[in-house]
Amino acid sequence: MKPANITQLLATYIHALHILHYHGVLDGYGHLSVRNPDNPATFFTIYQMAPALVSGLDDIGEYRVSDSERARPGNPDAKDTVERFIHGETLKRYPDVNVVLHGHAEEMVAYSISRVPLRAATHMSPIIGEEVPNFDITKFYRPNDTQDFLVRNQRLGAALAAEFDTSSNSNTYPRHNVVLMRSHGFAAVATDVKMATYEGIFALTNAKIEASALMLQHAYTGQAAQGRDGIAYLTPRQIYDSWQTERGIVDKPWALWVREVQVNPLYVNELDPDQ
């Protein structure tokens, strides 16, 4: 097998971090990981820093999937992100997952603390699926745990990874692409960096559209208060067909998203020859 071009992969990875910040999916916190194609037992993710400020190799570490600890010494001055266990444990449980995304967008948090289910409301968001699980970390705390909602160890990372659930057709890729995290944010999985970026942007878009529709419907009819929201969500067939379409044309918005961050002086990508 021909070795992967890791520099090119990480250039795309840095673009993804910048794009996700530009579109409000990631703020000063949050992170993205990508499995090492030359060594599936390791993954790359940023050190403890704001995603928008990642610019080159000194900002990215390589970690073991087995325990989420450094596979290489890397930058000795950089701190490891506390929640790297989200990535390691999810990549460990699902061998066909190559990318894990974690963010704290407030529109997603709102669904995590309410009883309103996040459902696919637009053909651009089939990755939402028929339902989105909500991981409640408080159910897994032990007496001596720091109860700050952060996924600080392998045990909590494994509990979150299990929430994605295994498909009836495969034990190597999960049933759900997105999982809410109570009072915290969300996590998402994908096969590649571009698709993970798409998922993050349109999961957030879907959350905004659904919230707006619910407010409009309630203001117009009052039905939401009676437990009937009246929203036209996608059917299972519509979700499936939309997903087959959208996954094949992700390169179309990707070119625009990259250009948006290339011309913005906030974002620096030392690995991009065009920047």
UniProtKB/TrEMBL annotation:
Listed InterPro entries: Aldolase_class_II_sugar_metab, Aldolase_II/adducin_N, Aldolase_II/adducin_N_sf
An example Gene Ontology CC term for this record: cytosol
Superkingdom in the source lineage: Eukaryota
Keywords, ordered alphabetically: Lyase, Metal-binding
SUPFAM superfamilies according to UniProt: AraD/HMP-PK domain-like
Annotated ranges, domain Class II aldolase/adducin N-terminal: 11-211
Example GO BP: pentose catabolic process
Magnesium found in the keyword field: no
Entry GO MF terms: aldehyde-lyase activity; metal ion binding
Entry keyword annotation includes Metal-binding: yes
UniProt name for this protein: Class II aldolase/adducin N-terminal domain-containing protein
Organism: Thermothielavioides terrestris (strain ATCC 38088 / NRRL 8126)
Species classification: Eukaryota, Fungi, Dikarya, Ascomycota, Pezizomycotina
